[in-house]
Design a protein that fits this description.
70 residues; mainly alpha
């Protein structure tokens, strides 16, 4: 059962990332900026949070906005 859930979760994630990749460049930048703001909202940014943000940026083939974490 756990293996089925993992495959299902992966398919859902892959589908979601494909949909996000369809956004136009402005929307992708806005999404990354929103994610960065959410990450920074508690006043600290963990390595795991930065890794996830960088991974999303790479996946979307979009640079992090310059003001993302300022």
């Amino acid at each position: 059962e756990a293996e089925f859930a993992s495959r299902t979760d992966y398919k859902t994630l892959a589908h979601s990332l494909r949909n996000l990749n369809r956004l136009d460049p402005y929307e992708k930048s806005a999404l990354l900026l929103s994610c960065a703001m959410a990450i920074a909202s508690d006043g600290r940014i963990t390595n795991e949070e930065m890794d996830l943000l960088r991974t999303l940026s790479i996946t979307l083939d979009t640079a992090l906005p310059a003001n993302a974490l300022s």
